[in-house]
Amino acid sequence: MADLSLPQQRAARRRLSLPKIPTAVVVAVVWILAILVVALLADQIAPYSLTRMDLKNRLSMPGNAAHWLGTDELGRDVLSRLLFSIRISLLIAFGATAISAVLGTLLGFLAAHFRGLIEQIVLMLADFQASMPFLILALAVLAFFGSSLQLLVCLMGLYGWERYARIARGLAISAAAQGYAGAIRQLGATPSRIYFRHILPNIASTLIVSMTLVFPEVILLESGLSFLGLGVQPPMTSLGNMVGYAREYLGRAPWIMLAPATTIVLTTLAVSIIGDWLRDKLDPTLK
Amino acid sequence: MTAPLVKVDAIVRSYRMRSGMFGRVTDLRAVDGVSFDIRRGETLGLVGESGSGKSTTGRMVLGLEAPDSGSVAFDQAAMPTTGSAAWRSQRARMQMIFQDPLSALDRRWPIARQVREPLDIHAIGDAASRAVRTDELLRSVGLSHDQGLRYPHELSGGQRQRAVIARALATRPDFLVCDEPVSALDVSIQAQVINLLVDLQAELGLTMLFISHDLRVVRQISRRVAVMYLGRIVELGDADHLFAAPQHPYTRALVSASPAPGRRSTERIVLTGDPPNPAARPAGCAFHPRCSHAFARCRLESPTLVEIAPDRSVACHLTDTDTGTVSAAASEAAA
Amino acid sequence: MLRFFAVRIVRAMLTIALVVTFAFVVLRLSGDPALIIMGPEAPPEVIAAFRKAWGLDDPIWMQYLDYFGAIARGELGRSMRDGRPAIQLVAERIPATLALTIPALLLKLGIGIPAGILAALHRGSVIDRAVMAAAVAGFTVPSFVLGLVLVLVFAVQLGWLPSGGQDSWRHAILPIITLGIGGAAVLARFTRSAMLEVLGQPYVRTASAKGVAWRAVVARHALPNAAIPTVTIIGFMVGTLIAGAVVVESVFSWPGVGRLLVVAVANRDLAVVQCVLLLVAATMVASNLAVDFLYGFLDPRLRTGAQAGAH
Hints:
heterotrimer; B: alpha/beta; 4-stranded antiparallel beta sheet; 13 helices; globular; C: mainly alpha; 14 helices; disordered C terminus
């Protein structure tokens, strides 16, 4: 690499221009982009509103002109509900992933910076979080507090923070040990400058890979909760919700379940594929 | 005589080592009562092998760690608490040069940005003047503007160390602590970097504490030298005198091991015994297990630094204050 | 060695204490516990008696200690629905849940581990890719989707198996398969990477170079060492024997602990929720502890105390 000129080296460093990206990853990216577009433009694209009932056409099969994916037991257009569900599910998943990443990273930095008692507390909380099945904890909180959308996002935001915290703490400590954090501190930089301008950019790639691992798990978790009727509440709809309602009509109208279920599976799969590929490229040391 | 820029008074630093969660706790005394002055514009060399406490001393002199007891004064004011705002703003006046330049630099920032960072941190000048100053700094250490655009891993070891030096000089500090700055470099590059430091010192009137285990490098750059063994200074004095006529048995062994032109090749003194381990200090004089002149008193009592000539001190029980030397004859008399 | 276990036990107790604290905090934060546990329709004298009995007028730290004491004595409140003690309700459902999770665990171990080992031994081949593709499918498909699809195929379309309830052994087949497949996928992936890591170690290559038959190398060197990290994840699965079937039980209307929990959450029957929470915590902690102990015996490095709790 040293014999390339400066601009050439910088171009090679940009990951997006890597020559060989496997087809699976390309397909996955395309799917995710499509999903994102849907989430953003649901209002514009959806043929009907979320709750509009067409009672004459209940349980109609997919493929007819008025309702491309059929209708459910109340005559609501499955396609429209699907589009809105995608938006809600993605909203929760992104919100939760962002919250847990920020929370986890901050706690990890606090643990690394202050060491001592604070570090022990953070580690203990992380152990606790890792050892209890999150679904049970989530159910307990939902039982006590009820399910509003804000609560749900905040609750999901507590999923996986311990992974970011461990990573951030470990890498911050080794940055200090390695020297550059210590060297910059010794220049007179404030701790926040060291953490946010130096350490964070250096660990960002590892954190991002973790985010791609956590994101699909959040989708699955939220879908599971909504399926049980304890997540997103009507009139809002999420992918899990739709599957939950479809249960009774499994025999008569399987398409009501298959549309959201397929979306869940494909989206989770796509993010996992992208995450695996990113991990191989950026940080082969992560398992 | 003007007051010294840096005054170190009997600093002590111990670390508690604990093996495992319920393991034994041992006290590791890294620095055990070190005192010296550094005058404005001069370089004090600090020599010793690993485990002697020289790096820890360097960190305490800069205030990166606080001594358990004793004091460090810079420009006649006590060192502020590590990490406080006062300490941070004082960094503009004193800096450290590290052993491994690659790990002292952020691998994701270009060199020029890192050289400029102290100016950003201490809010010196505006964007335009900072850019000008950055170029000036790069030039003063022999780096080009283009090299400034590169990342640390794209430069050679010597160039990286120059960059670190440029960064350290950004705020026009009065005092530099160099902790083994050339040990990680190839021998041919070492000379270049040392020469650069010497030139910069002359040009900018820098005061330096130069820490190294390599005598050849130390004598090139230092006016005075302090020799450390297991956390204490065993000999202190003018560099040329010290190397020409070392008094302390340890210094004599060190000097005999390092070849120097123009000196008669005297017999090499080979030290016996185990290398110094700060976790297991010998009683009495820390050097006695390896000293061929050790006698009864050495096992019981630790010697103090005694002045044998103006600006020349030794810590050895065999010091003959009349002649100002350390002689084996004295041991026979004492035995 | 003793140190090693002592540390682990202390940690386990701290985790339980943390769970109890969590329950306490959440309970207090969400409103007046008397109203919540007794129900909004309870007459005022009952509420007052409850408050007195639970010391709800005492300072908060005292309530905390009392809460701990109550838990230790097993007083976990009564269900709002039928007034029976929560513990009893939960205890009677445990066998039903275990009837699903234990066979499912055997399924996970029986499919997942061999698949993972096979994939690792034939790395890069068709077998490896097939196993990995199946594994990825296994854990990206959520359990409720898998369950419903199985119901759709086998119960609705083919009519071979019933779709819900607990009336016969045939009712258990689909839930067990649903539970087993997801876990098998995770286990397969994990076992594969553990094996790959071990196979890449120098001592494996040395054994092979010494002329030891490949089979023996795998059996005597690779497998035992790969078993160590795999034990952790199996331990986690054992720990979720009670908690792991929440969604599946709902899909198949199977009357186990999971279903009880979901209904209790929907009805805000907090005593039951609290009871399940603590039961799950105790199970997880116990199984983690067992795994740690097992580690102590399996990993000779830990046996000699070389790593006395330094984290």
